[in-house]
Fold:
Amino acid sequence: MAIFRLNHAVLYVRDVAASVAFYRDVLGFGYTETGDAIPGAAFLRAPGSSNDHDLGLFQIGSQAAPSGAGRTSVGLYHLAWEVDTLGDLEELAAALGAHSALVGASDHGTTKSLYGRDPDGLEFEIVWIIPAALLTDEDRNKTGIARLDLQAEIAKYGRDTHSGVGISRTNA
Structure:
C-alpha cells in the first residue's frame, strides 16, 4: 500500500466567488460538471487534469481571521501544482504578477518554482521539474534555494521542454 500523488485539496475561504475568480482567471482552473451546485462551495479542476476535482473551496465568511499557519499555529504551508513547460511557468508568472499575487520565484536545483498567494493570503507553489534525461550532477547536488532566473532556464532548457515526472524519473 502506497500513496502516489495528491488528488485534490480543500480550502476554507472568505468569499467563494472571489476565490473562484482568482483560480479561474489567474491559474486557469474551471468548474467541474457540478462545481457550483452547492451554495457557498465550488469544485474546480486544473487545466489538463484528469481528477474529478483538484480544488474544493468552502466559504466561511468575511469575519474569518487570516491563517496563522507557520506564524502562530501549525498548519499547511502550501500546495504545489506542476506545469508541463517552462513556457507555462513564464505565462503564470506574468498572470500572477499582473494580479499582484506573485510572492517569490525559486531555483531548487531539480525544480523551478513560483510562489503565489490567493485572495485569502493562502500560499501555493507552481513547479516545473527538470526531465531526468537533462539532469546534471550540479542540479542533483544543489544545496539551498537560489533565486529563479526564469529567462536563463528557458534559454537552457527551452520554452516547450516537457516537465519531468515525479522527481525527474523517466515516463513509463
Remarks:
- Residues 109 and 139 are 5 Å apart (CA to CA).
